[in-house]
């Protein structure tokens, strides 16, 4: 749902070349019988099976095996990639618009897709739904590696804003499992793995 984060993971920058962007097709979709929660002490969401619930998201096609490899590293061992059936909605949109399509669009088809299902236990999740608008407003730039306050900034290789935020956390939050980026920040173990896996 967050194009800059997806591009950062698979292309190494939040704003790749137009030809790289053109390789992906994004359609809004619904995942029935799942619920999205915020992970405790983190900025990111997780989904779990849940009867009578639905998760709004995007179906992205055009991903390569290399892209999936990098996404698997990024998601880490808290998630497993699993096959699911999703309902594709009627309006084709760009990646940056997929989360904003009005809810009354019609289902045009059901397709098989893969998604990342939370494996670290329901007790590690908050009861409330993860708020995508709050994430976009308050956290997205850090997750894309952009300098604070500069919408056109190139990727900040040092993730200075992320490092600063982590350094300011009190020692209780720095215990294992309390990293709000779950190892995905500039100095996190997942970011190091992504750099080592750069193709």
From TrEMBL:
Domain of life of the organism encoding this protein: Eukaryota
CDD domains reported for this sequence: GGCT_like (cd06661)
The keyword Membrane is annotated on this UniProt entry: no
Keyword presence, Ribonucleoprotein: no
Chain coiled-coil ranges: none
Renumbered residue ranges of the record's region Disordered: 149-199
Annotated source species: Vermiconidia calcicola
PANTHER family: AIG2-LIKE PROTEIN D (PTHR31544)
Single GO MF annotation: transferase activity
Protein name per UniProt: Putative gamma-glutamylcyclotransferase
Record family assignment: Belongs to the gamma-glutamylcyclotransferase family.
Basic and acidic residues bias spans: 161-181
InterPro entries membership: AIG2-like, AIG2-like_dom, GGCT-like, GGCT-like_sf
Residue span(s) of domain Gamma-glutamylcyclotransferase AIG2-like: 22-131
Bias-annotated ranges (Acidic residues): 149-160
Keywords: Transferase
């Amino acid at each position: 749902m967050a194009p800059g984060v997806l591009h950062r993971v698979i292309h190494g920058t939040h704003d790749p070349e137009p030809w790289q962007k053109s390789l992906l097709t994004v359609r809004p979709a619904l995942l029935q019988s799942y619920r999205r929660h915020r992970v405790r002490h983190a900025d990111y969401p997780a989904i779990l099976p849940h009867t009578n619930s639905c998760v709004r998201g995007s179906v992205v096609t055009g991903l390569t095996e290399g892209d999936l490899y990098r996404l698997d590293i990024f998601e880490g061992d808290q998630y497993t990639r699993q096959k699911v059936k999703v309902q594709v909605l009627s309006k084709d949109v760009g990646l940056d618009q997929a989360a904003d399509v009005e809810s009354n669009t019609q289902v045009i088809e059901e397709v098989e897709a893969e998604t990342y299902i939370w494996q670290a236990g329901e007790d590690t999740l908050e009861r409330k739904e993860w708020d995508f608008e709050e994430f976009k407003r308050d956290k997205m730039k850090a997750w894309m590696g952009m300098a604070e306050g500069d919408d056109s900034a190139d990727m900040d290789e040092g993730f200075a804003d992320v490092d600063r935020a982590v350094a300011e956390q009190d020692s209780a939050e720095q215990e294992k499992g309390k990293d709000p980026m779950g190892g995905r920040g500039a100095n996190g173990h997942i970011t190091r793995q992504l750099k080592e896996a750069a193709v």
